[in-house]
Amino acid sequence: MNIGTEEQRNIETKKQKNVETQKSFLCFSVSLFNGLRQERSGFTLIELLVVMAILAVLFAIIIIAVNPVRQNQQANNTERRSDINSILNAVYHYAADTGALPTSISTSLKVIGTAATGCASLCGASTPQDACANLTSDLTLRYMNEIPKDPTTGTDAITRYAIFKSVVENRVKVIACDAELGATIEVER
What we know:
There is one protein chain. A 4-stranded antiparallel beta sheet has the order 1-2-3-4, with helices on one face. By secondary structure, it is an alpha+beta fold. The longest helix has 35 residues, at 2-36. It is built from 4 helices and 4 strands; from the N terminus they run αααβαβββ. It has a domain at 71-188: Glycoprotein, Type 4 Pilin, CATH 3.30.700.
């Protein structure tokens, strides 16, 4: 029976060695895997580039949808409409109080302003007279605080708003000379 027990011991020793080998291999594998795995504390370059590309596309879509230049031009045209209505209202209040239109309003198209010359630039499809229609003394203080001027190109000397009265109907028309987006901005009463 010595032989049997010795064989059994050999078998048990082999089994024990196999288990130890497997354990050591497993420990080696785990330590190797742990050595290869690194702790990440940030984003990779690819992740950052993908996020930046998505943001760029979204930003482009928003800029196209909002179109700030067009919005600004529409706001300027709205201001022009308001300005020419204010001018025409002041002219008619003046006419109601005095019984006549301001003397600087004639049947010829004139740009409103204080300049004596230099008002003959293109206004709509017409070229006004060289002298401006100075409404400052007639309309300011009593009917309006100041004569409005075009939001982009107007000055006190040359407002870029034009005025004239028709011969036949005795109606007054005020025109915004520099309307944007192809708009024609004018009021007639």
